[in-house]
TrEMBL record:
Native source organism of the sequence: Paracidovorax wautersii
Protein name (database record): Hemoglobin
Stored Gene3D superfamilies: Globins
Keyword Iron: yes
Statement: the UniProt record of this protein carries the keyword Metal-binding: yes
This protein's UniProt keywords: Heme, Iron, Metal-binding, Transport
Cofactor(s) the protein needs: heme
Family stated for the protein in its record: Belongs to the truncated hemoglobin family. Group II subfamily.
SUPFAM superfamilies named in the record: Globin-like (SSF46458)
Length: 140
């Protein structure tokens, strides 16, 4: 059956990048803010929260800037700090399976609570797990 060119679904262009699909900077900011809010609120993320020091303000900005570029939007992080060098920048922190799993679970919960489209959420969850596992610098 042919698609009616005036239908709402055909009027919207397909998102070229995950950044566009998620909804641009306002939605990335909402995701990052919810991620760090959950870290502060949920006892299940206590180890993850403890690794971040007394304030989350700098971490919020850095993750927002990083995710914008990583998702295919503006490269705010790289313009400020150069190449992300994720593993090197995280070496000072003790990251094991528990921290990895808490980070991924917290981000997945934040994606669900901020309305990240399910297909994108699934793709991002896989990428986040791969990256978080790569960041581990201790076994347990």
């Amino acid at each position: 059956m042919p698609v009616d060119d005036d239908s709402p679904s055909s009027a919207r262009p397909a998102a070229a990048t995950p950044f566009e699909w998620i909804g641009g900077e306002p939605r990335v900011r909402a995701l990052v803010d919810r991620f760090y809010d959950l870290m502060d609120l949920e006892p299940a993320y206590a180890a993850l929260r403890a690794a971040h020091g007394s304030t989350l303000d700098e971490a919020r900005d850095k993750l927002f800037w990083f995710l914008c570029g990583w998702l295919g939007g503006p490269d705010h992080y790289q313009s400020r700090f150069g190449h992300p060098r994720l593993r090197a920048r995280h070496l000072p922190f003790s990251i094991g399976i528990k921290e990895r799993d808490e980070w991924v679970a917290c981000m997945d919960q934040a994606m669900g609570e901020t309305g990240v489209p399910e297909a994108l959420r699934t793709r991002l969850a896989e990428s986040f797990m791969g990256t978080a596992d790569w960041m581990r610098n201790r076994g347990g």
